[in-house]
Amino acid sequence: MSHPSTYNPNSGLEKWLDARLPILRLAHDSFVDFPTPKNLNYWWTFGGILTVCLVIQIITGIVLAMHYTPHTSMAFDSVEHIMRDVNYGWLMRYVHANGGSMFFLAVYIHMFRGLYYGSYKEPREVLWMLGVVIFILMMATAFMGYVLPWGQMSYWAATVITNLFSAIPLIGDDIRTLFWGGFSVDNPTLNRFFSLHYLLPFAIFGVVMLHIWALHVPGNNNPTGVEVKDVKKDTVPFHPYYTVKDGFGIAVFLVLFAAFVFFNPDGLGHPDNYIKANPLSTPASIVPEWYFMPFYAILRAITFDLGPISSKLGGVIAMFSSLLILFVLPWLDRSKVRSMRYRPAARLWFVIFVVACIALGVLGGLPAEGRNVLYAQIATAYYFGFFLIILPLLGIMETPKPLPRSIADAVLNKHKPEAASGGAQPAPAE
Amino acid sequence: MTTSDDTEDGEPTRREFIHIMAGVTAAAGAGATLWPLVDQMNPDASVLALSSKEVDVSAIAVGQAIKVMWQGKPVFIRHRTAEEIAEAEGTALSALKDPSARNENLAADADAEDANRRVDPNWMIVVGVCTHLGCIPLGTSSGENRGDYNGWFCPCHGSHYDIAGRIRRGPAPDNLDVPPYEFLSDTVVKIG
Amino acid sequence: MIARTTIFAALASLAGMTAAIASAGSAKEAEHHHWHFAGPFGTFDKDALQRGYQVYETVCASCHGVEQLSFRNLGQKGGPFYLNTCPAGFADNVDCSNPNENPIVKALAAQYRYQVLDGPDDSGDMVERTPLASDRIPGPYPNEVIARLANNNALPPDLSLITKARHHGPDYVYSLLIGYADAPATVEITPGQYYNPYFHGDMTQALKPEFLDAEGHVVDGVVVPVGGVLAMAPPLVDGIVDYADEATPETVEQYAADVVEFLTWASEPKMEARKSMGVMSLIYLVILCIILYWSYRRVWAGLKK
User: Fold this and answer.
1) Whole-prediction pTM value?
2) Which of A155, A159, A237, C141 is the residue whose CA sits 20 to 30 A from A307?
């Protein structure tokens, strides 16, 4: 939230620097004295958790790049060299590989939180869209990173995903060849994937800065969805209130992270990726990492031609649309009420949406045959229906519950007996 | 101690014990994480495995020399003739540019007489890197220029080494290094 | 409340997801063997590792390589032949905990059944020489073509990652090794192929013609057997490897368990370091969580007044 600077340089050196590069003032106003709604719950700690994830991935990634060799004949062995010979190499590689999964787990929770509490709504549309950009960059980075160990799944995932682009009419084959730098996934492909996999995280870092900037103009949304009315009553300074709360959230998250890294490091991976890539033999089933499975399910759900659009192109369009639709979400949901706490109907549809997403995730990992295809089609239809039909209609039709007058009011009422909470409605969900 | 630190408007002070402890614990964790990130840059197990090398010298005839790679550097192994040994042992210390033995098997203050430059008088083993700027001196393979002192000659800037690998003339400041080595048997030498 | 339960359900289903994928295939489910290395505190049984190495070298190495392993790995910390101190009779300056100086490892390398291809020598020829501790353990075949020619066009997979490269790897390899069985009466096995109920395959292909209709579909009422056929003959028989330790039975089950112990170590030699660091990390993180939670409650306590 824009607010007058409260930074007060103490020493001569700080004054000197402040007159030349007010970076300490920026940090102070953004992360120390930043007025933050006092009612944020634990779902709001995932912003901090994601920052930690990004930093962990960048640091371990730089370390791994010191030992990795991006060549088709050496990549697999160089990863095993890291696992076996490099000092703490196994730790770096397991943290990095599981870090990808943890990053996506956190980002999905962060996104569902934004959906539930209407964090994408005016005036935070740009904030939301920058988040979608980060998400797409993350997906590209994760995909290219998965190719680098050059195991069977690496190779065949690269083949399948790059072949998606050949569905584009007229120029599809040329685009695919451009990605490959050859006539199939091969050494040039591996080299450019390594280059881009190293580059994109820094692009993500840049967009994260914009994301935080765009957050700090309107300030945080909060579980009530009611804007801050009185900075004194409704907010607390970010530090120490949310630094310590985020810190606690990060520590709990790291327990889960460490449990995977140290006690089930390959549990989220696929055994076939411990087999060297073999262009002559396709694995029995090609499945992406779990975090791509919902999108993979949408891709495979389009099994029918739609007029001139083949099922292959249709699947690709559906998959990319499922991401792009997030960009226009702020204009699809017309409800004036942000938080679904006060939108009982929307909350129900939202729960079904979460179930549909999880169902897509499960179906993406199962063979696309029999009833699975139908289930995936139903879930896909609901995914798009939720954004394109349900949310716009709800904005017109639903009757939201009365909103609290302010954040301070909502916080105070929470601690009083239910009868005093301003109406006959049951207490909010949180 | 906790309650008394609270200021009147309910703001907790940042000096409470538990907050300091939280900060210290988190910092300790971050510090411990730092070591693997640094240690990964040290030589790894596959590099360390090659830190020593066993060489069979039985095939080197008297008067011949070979070059072997050890830790990424060439090592010269010369089977010296009786005349060469006599020449090396007869050289006065005053004639040497660098009076130090430069022998990793001996103390740093040993002087550069021939006995301090080798284990067995028949074998001269030195690291083949010119002490001037790191070129590889000539003189190991037959037919190469052995310089004015019948040892090795660095073509980069004209450094002449004698038959004991000692610098005699030219810009190089030090004698050629003698690597740590031992004879495991009469014909096998372990370098490193 | 609804939203919160949903997201917990989502987390729970993530955990179940990988298991669901693993269940595809028509093979018999692998025997669950109790492994010394199982569980968060599991370590490798050093004696089993040594016996397992012996089984590998005597039997498996006839066809399978372990290309990610060097001899020195056998003598590194946690390896089968690691020595903390030298046996009596060694000079003071020898450090036997250094895998490159470990006398057992040097002997194993020097006596190994295959030579290492090195060179070119001074005359430009490649030469075979005795392996050193720093060498990779040489495999049986110089290249894939020769490996296939020697094995009826089947390629024996490298074993250095085999327990990681299969679902439930240790149990699977163990079951496969002890699980060879006579083929069911409904199938015809071609010579040079062997039936194993634990091998992933499609036995429809092997059904005798009388159980298939004109279009190649299975006749109603006929059950296709689980498992598959592979080109590897049953490699282990009782007594094929001589254990120095008289107390250990020389049976197929014992050999299989020992060699799986060894191959699991070969797949991840740093497993013990991983688990012990994991225990320390989790203890630290839980303490950190408690302290941070306490600190968090203290910071916020002032607001609640």
Assistant:
1) 0.89
2) A159
